[in-house]
């Protein structure tokens, strides 16, 4: 458990900054500090919450927030599939629920780096420090986002996108196809956002449609080899 | 605002928690179907890329600093996988650029 807390410290620091900027977005979407904090506590997902807050801001139909959350967070399904393979048969079932609840990109990252069967208490240690940082950071962002000078908000506003890039860019060194895929996604998304007619569609819907087309096409033409995880 | 914020939050949380818990509690075997496996593998990269561009260009006071942040963060992400450093580099890039512009 102590090892989890130790490895959770840098994660918690990063979460404070990123969730702060997420709070600024939540504030623009009309959430107060309490609403932002519970949204963050129960979601623990940067991309999913960002997409969700944008959907709330657009006052879009409920179905859209369900779909966009599904797409933005679909990767967690992959991660928890991986985690399910690492659980020992002797570990009580209830741990699957709590470990799953706290399976963020970063906690997943430090969990799979450890050898042997998954020790749930390691995850709880990391969650103990990372989850409050994420939750409180969001609330502070909502309350303080407007006190900060324009330039600071402008600078902090890209932290979230930096976090996205830090998740998607490093793996392209091992898998060239991902680099091509990401490049196609950048270009297609930029065009879709500026094309007449298409740009009328909400950003959430564009994300869903582009993801289905591009990831579906890639899966069809370039299926992942059997031996690769 | 015609929609209730708490219903939005509830739907977000319910979907996110289900996504995380279903595989861990139901699927005890590995997914074998190649298309589904590949699709799940590619989805996160495409979604995050689509959300980054053009969003990052319009997140700052001027698109110029947004574009520079995008380039700086991409380069940093290529050489380090520390989320904290990449996010910090993007913020510093914007701050410095706007210091010169305004």
Quick summary of this structure?
The complex is a heterodimer of chains A (229) and B (102). Chain A has 229 residues and is an all-alpha fold. Helix content of chain A is 74%, strand content 0%.
In words, what does this structure look like?
The complex is a heterodimer of chains A (229) and B (102). Chain A is an all-alpha fold and 229 residues long. Chain A has 2 domains: 2-168, no CATH class; 170-229, no CATH class. Chain A is 74% helix and 0% strand. Chain A starts with a helix and ends in an 8-residue tail after the last helix. With 102 residues, chain B is mostly helical. The radius of gyration of chain B is 19 Å and the shape is extended. The two termini of chain B are 36 Å apart. Classes of the chains: A mainly alpha (229), B mainly alpha (102). Chains A and B meet through α1, α2, α3, α4 and α5 of A and α1, α2, α3 and α4 of B.
Please describe the structure with a list of short key phrases separated by commas or semicolons.
heterodimer, A: 229 residues, mainly alpha, 2 domains, 12 helices, 74% helix, globular, B: 102 residues, 4 helices, 75% helix, 0% strand, extended
């Amino acid at each position: 458990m102590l090892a989890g807390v130790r490895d959770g410290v840098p994660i918690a620091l990063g979460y404070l900054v990123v969730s702060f900027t997420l709070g600024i977005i939540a504030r623009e979407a009309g959430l107060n500090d309490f609403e932002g904090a519970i949204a963050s506590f129960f979601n623990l997902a940067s991309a999913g919450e960002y997409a969700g807050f944008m959907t709330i801001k657009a006052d879009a139909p409920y179905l859209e927030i369900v779909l966009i959350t599904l797409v933005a967070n679909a990767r967690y399904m992959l991660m928890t599939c991986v985690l399910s393979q690492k659980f020992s048969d002797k570990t009580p079932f209830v741990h699957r629920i709590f470990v799953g609840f706290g399976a963020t990109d970063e906690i997943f990252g430090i969990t799979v780096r450890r050898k042997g069967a998954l020790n749930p208490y390691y995850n709880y240690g990391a969650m103990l420090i990372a989850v409050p940082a994420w939750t409180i950071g969001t609330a502070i962002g909502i309350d303080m986002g407007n006190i900060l000078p324009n330039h600071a908000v402008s600078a902090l506003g890209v932290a979230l996108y930096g976090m996205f890039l830090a998740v998607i860019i490093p793996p392209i060194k091992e898998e060239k196809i991902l680099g091509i895929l990401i490049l196609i996604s950048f270009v297609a998304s930029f065009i879709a956002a500026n094309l007449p007619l298409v740009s009328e569609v909400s950003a959430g819907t564009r994300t869903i449609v582009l993801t289905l087309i591009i990831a579906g096409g890639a899966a069809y033409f370039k299926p992942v080899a059997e031996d690769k995880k | 605002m015609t929609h209730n914020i708490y219903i939005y939050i509830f739907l977000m949380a319910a979907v996110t928690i289900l996504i995380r818990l279903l595989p861990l509690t139901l699927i005890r075997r590995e997914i074998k179907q190649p298309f589904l496996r590949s699709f799940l593998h590619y989805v996160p990269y495409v979604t995050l890329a689509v959300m980054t561009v053009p969003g990052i260009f319009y997140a700052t006071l001027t698109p110029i600093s947004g574009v520079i942040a995008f380039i700086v963060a991409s380069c940093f992400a290529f050489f380090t996988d520390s989320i904290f450093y990449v996010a910090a580099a993007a913020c510093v890039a914007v701050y410095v650029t706007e210091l010169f512009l305004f």
